[in-house]
Specification:
With 340 residues, the protein is an alpha/beta fold. Helices cover 41% and strands 16% of the residues. It has a single domain, classed as Alpha-Beta Barrel (TIM Barrel), CATH 3.20.20. The chain is built from twelve helices and ten strands. The strands form two sheets. It has an eight-stranded parallel beta barrel with strand order 1-2-5-6-7-8-9-10, surrounded by six helices. The chain has a two-stranded antiparallel ribbon with strand order 3-4. The chain is globular. Bound molecules: flavin-adenine dinucleotide.
Length: 340
């Protein structure tokens, strides 16, 4: 993990002289007493941009009283830098740093709970422990524990030496810290942390899994390791989500399952979203999108589809809906305004 991460955290402890107490995601769900909550996810700004860019995406959604806001984590990717001799050098660079500091900044500015994403990729177990300690000191007790994708430009996920190969062992590590058990075996009576742990689920199967059944078995492994709730990959077909929930329940996964959805807003999305997230586009949606000539028409179709998806998910009784904004909040705003 880059030393940059720790420098940011160190900076934060200087900025905030009190801890940032967070209500856990599961407490929000319990307190809702059956009402479907609203949450959304933002990406850290690209390095070199003002944090105001990110706030501009958060602000329009605050009127809907989100219960929590997730902030994604982006590891390094390989880029090719042109040298003065005309050759190219392959270097690793992180383009969207700042997950934890952004969580603290959003919490501080908007008084809303935040959930930093924590990934296995790029972290040794020791570095994970240190990152968790920093979060604990900041009073953050929500995390979404993920494996992370392979580094951009590489085909398979490679863990760090002594890092986690799967999210399930990352969850195990966090659960152990919640019991006061640290990697550093010199710590005998460690202070137990109090993290509420979310994990990812895939209604249409994770793309690397051999089949749905195996994928669900590994999802159960994450829950058995201590995950408190699941947030799903985005999907356009609610029936796939309903089937997924049923299959989870049938194998003893009993934690809350939060559906993740994203409105389609550009012509580019039509090919990009199914390809990138390994999800199907239902025929009825594909037919409507085929008639679109520009992004505005796509956005109208996307919003209408999002409204119907949301209404149906609320009627089904989901505990919360998680909207992937990818930095664009206008479409989500229209959906939530109409459907909630
Ligand atoms: P795992 O649960 O570890 O599963 C990965 C694959 O390995 C699956 O195919 C699973 O079936 C298989 N598997 C699991 N355990 C075993 C085992 N013991 N033996 C063999 N196979 C096994 N990525 C980011 O980089 N940053 C983010 O902020 C981010 N946020 C996300 C938020 C959500 C809600 C979701 C759904 C995804 C997010 N991702 C993010 C993407 C995620 O990191 C990728 O989908 C990644 O490829 C898998 O992560 P996972 O945690 O589901 O992995």
């Amino acid at each position: 993990m880059s030393p940059f991460f720790f420098k940011q955290l160190w900076g934060l402890t200087c900025i905030f002289d009190t801890q940032i107490f967070t209500v856990k995601v599961t407490e929000h769900l319990d307190n809702a007493k059956g009402k479907t909550l609203f949450s959304f996810e933002v990406l850290p700004s690209i390095k070199g941009r003002d944090i105001q860019d990110l706030y501009n995406g958060v602000e329009p959604l605050m009127e809907f009283d989100p219960s929590f806001i997730n902030v994604t984590y982006h590891r390094e990717e390989f880029i090719y830098k042109k040298l003065s001799n005309g050759l190219h050098e392959k270097i690793a660079a992180r383009k969207r740093p700042g997950t934890v500091s952004i969580c603290a900044a959003i919490k501080n500015k908007f008084k809303v709970d935040t959930v930093p994403h924590l990934i296995c990729g790029g972290f040794t177990r020791d570095e994970t422990e240190l990152a968790l300690i920093d979060m604990q000191y900041l009073g953050m007790n929500n995390i979404l524990a993920l494996r992370g994708d392979p580094v951009k430009g590489e085909s398979t996920f490679v863990p760090e030496k002594d890092g986690h190969a799967y999210a399930s062992t990352l969850v195990q590590q966090v659960s152990m810290m919640n019991q006061g058990r640290y990697i550093d075996d010199e710590i005998v009576e460690g202070i137990p942390t109090d993290f509420c742990i979310g994990v990812a689920g895939y209604p249409e199967k994770h793309f690397e899994a051999q089949n749905m059944k195996t994928d669900l078995r590994y999802l159960k492994e994450k829950v058995d390791a201590g995950a408190h709730y699941i947030v799903t990959q985005l999907f356009f077909d609610n029936q796939k989500f309903f089937n997924f929930v049923e299959e989870c329940r049938s194998i003893g996964i009993n934690v809350p399952i939060i559906p993740g959805i994203k409105p389609i807003t550009t012509l580019k999305h039509i090919a990009f979203l199914p390809k990138t997230f390994h999800i199907d586009m239902p025929e009825a949606l594909a037919d409507e999108l085929e008639k679109c000539k520009n992004n505005q028409q796509v956005t109208e179709v996307g919003i209408e589809w999002g409204i119907q998806q949301t209404k149906e998910l609320i009627a089904y009784g989901v505990p919360c809906i998680h909207y992937y904004t990818m930095g664009k909040s206008e479409a989500v705003k229209k959906i939530v305004k109409t459907a909630y």
